[in-house]
Input
Amino acid sequence: MRLAEIFERVVGPDAPVGFRAYDGSTAGDPDSDTTLVVRSPVALNYIAQAPGALGLTRAYVSGHLDLEGDMYTALKRMADLVFDDGLRLSPLELARIAAGIGWVKFVNRVPPPPQEMRRTRLSGRGTRHSKGRDAEVIHHHYDVSNAFYELVLGPSMTYTCAVFPSEDATLEQAQFDKYDLVARKLDLQPGMRLLDVGCGWGGMVRHAAKEYGVKALGVTLSKEQAEWASKRIAQEGLSDLAEVRHMDYRDVPDEFYDRVSSIGLTEHIGKKNVPDYFAGLYSKLKPGGRLLNHCITRPRNDLPAMVPGGVINRYVFPDGELEGPGWLQAQMNDAGFEIRHQENLREHYALTLRHWCANLERNWDTAVREVGEGTARVWRLYMAGCILGFEKDVVQLHQILGVKLDGTDAHMPLRPSFS
Output
């Protein structure tokens, strides 16, 4: 049985992409600018072992399945044909396919690519969201290579959703505007103390110090992020105001801060830890202090927080959990915060990802030399898929502003302007 015939059985004869296989067979749209290429039988092994997105990801990351053309374009065209529910074939049809191409090729087990986070590696680090296991998860994703992140993220070294004043704004302008939006929501003033938990490469810390004269402390579980941020702070002459420490957010000393920002950390801490997380941040704030929580969310509160064994969980954010915005807001409220503002920046994250994807493609050869082709492929696939996720409202991005009341005074203007 030719592989093109299998492709047509699975997706139908009118697939909006081309198809080519190592056996010389072709299918799909011959004039398409995107073509799926099966380079070896190992791709079939992966898909047979894990029918659906995981098997396809393993085959692509390992290079046995390839795509000629733009990844986002191909994913968008195939969105209605994605195999998330498994190959659309009956067990009898699967048996016929296996017999047609050879049982050995079809069922021979092959190990996942090394870029996949194995459960045994995580289980050896403790229970989910313990300090040791969280450190390993952060190391897996964020300690890839600072040089690689510079290629993808650009000069701002900011790995969170930007805020675009217009669709044609540059990524650097949009990242500056995101930090400034956070700063204005927090009403940063000279001399204030800011705690930025999950600070990444120190973007918010440096912005607060440079633009607002704030004394800012950032903490991150990534050693490479902390080292990069500390060097940049020194280079920019901000050492008297800004500091980044390699530290778990749970180990931040119990001091009082005027403001707290949490930009892209809530996704990593686990649903069961969220109440204690917000309670801990509340306890570190002075009366009248503010918290701005910025994180990826699920569009509904009743959706599961994570998909165990899914592609994102295995390749990108092991142990990552996304909550609904209403649930997160309730947890902030129950921790004592008065909720003063909330907004969804979903479309902005799709635009941000487009810029990151363009950066990766523009610097592809350098990126491959830096981290290897398998890791670069993970990023190409994951970021293109995330654009689609935000566009189709599979995921969202919310900022929620809370105030620790000073008695009954929120120290807020009657009509704040957050543009």
The longest helix spans residues 373-391.
